[in-house]
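Aim 2, interim progress. The first record below pairs a target sequence with its C-alpha cells.
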Amino acid sequence: MRMLLILLLAGALALGGFLTRPSEEAQKNNADAEFAKASGGDGIGALIDTVVGGITREAKFEDMLVATKYTVTSGGSTVLECLGAYAQFFCSKPEAK
C-alpha cells in the first residue's frame, strides 16, 4: 500500500511538471530579461551592441517532457543556459575558462 502511494505521488509530480513546463516563447522572453538585467536593463543599448558589434546569438530549445532547456550560444561558447520546470526558470551563466 505504501509503494502504491509513493507511485501515485510521483506520477502526480510528473504530470504537474508536464503540464506546467515553460514553452519556447516563455524561455526566450526569460533569456531576454536575463540579458537586459545583465546589461543594466537598457534594451536599446543591447540592441545597438548586437548590431554594431556583430554579436550573433544562437538559441537551442530542448523539451525534456517535464522540463525545458534553453541554451544561448555566441561565438561558439555558451553564454546562458536556462532550465524551466513548474513554470519557473533557473538560469546560469557558465564560468569563464
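The second target in this work package is listed in the same format:
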Amino acid sequence: MEGLQDVLYIFEICDGNNTYTLRGSIYDGELTLNGYDNIPGISHAYGDGEAAYVYNFDRENTQKLTEIFHTENLLESLKKFFGGKKALTEFENLCRENGIYFQAEDINLRLSDRHFVL
C-alpha cells in the first residue's frame, strides 16, 4: 500500500478580495485536485460567493499524467504547469487531448458533474 505521497498547493492566487486555490494530493497512486474559490463580488448570483471543486483521477490516469509530464513528482510538475495561474481549462484540454479521464465535481454550486471520456 503506497498511502499518501504528498500534498501540495498547486496555486494560491489573491486578486483583490478574490482568492483562488488548488491543492493536489496523491493517495494510493490516485491524484486528487481540490479547488476553492472565494469571490465575494458574485455572492448575489451564486449565494455565498464561494465554490469548491474536485478533480479525481484513478491510478491508470494518474500514471498517464505522470508519463505526459515525464516526471517522478507529478505534483511539482502540475505546479509548474499552472505557473501560479488558474489554468483549469488548459489542464482539462491537456487531459482530453491525451485520453486522460477524470471525474470533476463542483461541490457548492452543483453546476457540473463532468466525466470526460473520449
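Residues 59-68 form the longest helix (10 residues). This observation will shape the mutagenesis plan for the next reporting period.
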